[in-house]
Amino acid sequence: MRILVLGAGGYLGGHVTERLRALPGARVLVGGRSPGADVAVDLASDRPYLLAGALAKAAPDAVVNCAGATGGD
């Protein structure tokens, strides 16, 4: 199962990603603004069609949104 975690670099997302990676058969993809993200998305500034395209290309079976803040402090 391919699982995309948005906000994986944050506190909650880091814990969720760690737990998901421990599941047998889980392929966890990291989505976000960081340069090391598997799926480059910026929920604060990307247009909806860019997000839709990134999701279609990644083809996850599930998306877990752990993004707490999309911009600012």
Primary descriptors:
73 residues; alpha/beta
What does this 3D model show about the protein?
The protein is of the alpha/beta class. It has one domain (2-65). 30% of the residues lie in helices and 23% in strands. The protein has helices at residues 11-21, 48-58; strands spanning 2-6, 27-32, 39-40, 62-65. The N and C termini lie far apart (34 Å).
**What is the overall number of helices?**
2
- The N- to C-terminal Cα distance equals 34 Å
Shape, per Cα inertia axes: globular
> Which regions are unreliable across 5 or more consecutive residues at pLDDT < 50?
none
Radius of gyration: 12 Å
Summarize the topology.
Layout: E1 2-6, H1 11-21, E2 27-32, E3 39-40, H2 48-58, E4 62-65
Parallel strand pairs: 1-2, 1-4, 2-3
What is the structure about, briefly put?
The chain is α/β, with parallel strands linked by helices and 73 residues long. Helices cover 30% and strands 23% of the residues. It has 2 helices and 4 strands; from the N terminus they run βαββαβ.
